[in-house]
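User: Please fill in residues for this 342-position structure.
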């Protein structure tokens, strides 16, 4: 961590980007004064924002069309098109696919000239995404930044903030001991921090502890606004009503960290996340013996699938040893990696 000396004896640590790449999954965190304030994820199995490609019109709709890529993925074009079904075209991704509980919203595209298409841009797009911060980039683990996301709860003293993904959006529930205004003041700042930390977009519902005084409700909303000033993502919000509810709508060009971790599930890691994390563990493991990856059957099948062969090869190359996948329905957690003694 870089340091800059300022007045008196205080030392301010300058902002940095922590980069934490692994087979199939890129992670990065913006770190300010020693604290992770934003986490970004890009997965190679998904089309990335700004990526270009080609596909054919599968079926038209009154307002656009569904386009199927050469790999068989379905994308949504939200503009009218005169070409008939079956015609090939070139596109650029304008919004990544978004996973919600029980469903996946397809990625959205815009039409581009055929000369814009590139075979693969994920590395370059990720580098551009990081250089946008204009901060030094170092290699470091950001695994601790997922702790609150996995628990679905943040506790600050006696204030408890619980959250859960729904089809309608992310819902926060605020509870605690003491004066409602004091509880809500802590919650407003923490929720703004979590929205930035996990790059949450779309609809957010916040259920504050109810307060009768309108002036207090207005003040809590303004505290939320002030705490959100450092977040570059635009948002709109309602006032806090008499029941303590406030609605926030944020831009959503990419999946949030929560969307990546849980996919179509509510509070359980997706098969994809478990597979990515196991490959990460293989790539980062030490020792000379073969790596045995034990996972639930669905996760094991994913790891052994043809679509994941390139990331298996990357993990094996990073570990410098062979990898064996074992399916075990009794596996706990997201599985584990054993290094054979040789």
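Assistant: Residues filled in for all 342 positions:
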């Amino acid at each position: 961590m870089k340091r800059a000396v300022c007045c008196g004896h205080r030392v301010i640590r300058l902002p940095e980007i922590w980069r934490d790449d692994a087979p199939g999954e890129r992670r990065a965190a913006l770190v300010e004064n020693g604290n992770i304030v934003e986490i970004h994820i890009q997965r190679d199995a998904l089309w990335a924002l700004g990526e270009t490609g080609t596909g054919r019109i599968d079926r038209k709709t009154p307002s656009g069309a569904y386009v199927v890529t050469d790999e068989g993925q379905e994308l949504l074009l939200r503009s009218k098109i005169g070409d008939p079904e079956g015609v090939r075209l070139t596109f650029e991704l304008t919004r990544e696919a978004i996973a919600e509980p029980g469903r996946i919203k397809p990625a959205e595209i815009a039409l581009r000239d055929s000369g814009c298409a590139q075979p693969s841009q994920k590395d370059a797009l990720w580098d551009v995404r990081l250089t946008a911060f204009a901060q030094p980039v170092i290699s470091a683990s950001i695994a601790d930044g997922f702790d609150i996301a996995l628990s679905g709860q943040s506790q600050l003293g006696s204030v408890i903030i619980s959250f859960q993904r729904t089809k309608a959006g992310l819902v926060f529930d605020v509870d605690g001991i003491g004066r409602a205004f004091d509880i809500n003041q802590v919650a407003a700042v923490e929720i703004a921090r979590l929205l930035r930390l996990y790059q949450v977009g779309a609809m957010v519902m916040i259920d504050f502890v109810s307060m009768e005084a309108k002036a207090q409700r207005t003040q809590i909303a303004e505290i939320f606004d002030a705490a959100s000033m450092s977040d570059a993502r635009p948002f709109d919000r309602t006032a806090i009503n008499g029941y303590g509810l406030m609605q926030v709508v944020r831009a959503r060009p990419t999946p949030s960290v929560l969307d990546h971790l849980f996919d179509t599930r509510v509070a359980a890691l997706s098969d994809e996340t478990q597979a990515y994390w196991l490959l990460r563990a293989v790539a980062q493991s030490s020792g000379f013996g073969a790596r045995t990856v034990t996972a639930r059957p669905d996760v094991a099948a994913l790891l052994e699938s043809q679509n994941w062969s390139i990331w298996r090869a990357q993990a094996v190359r990073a570990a410098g040893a062979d990898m064996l996948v074992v399916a075990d329905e009794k596996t706990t957690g997201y599985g584990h990696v054993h290094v054979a003694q040789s």
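For context: The radius of gyration is 22 Å.
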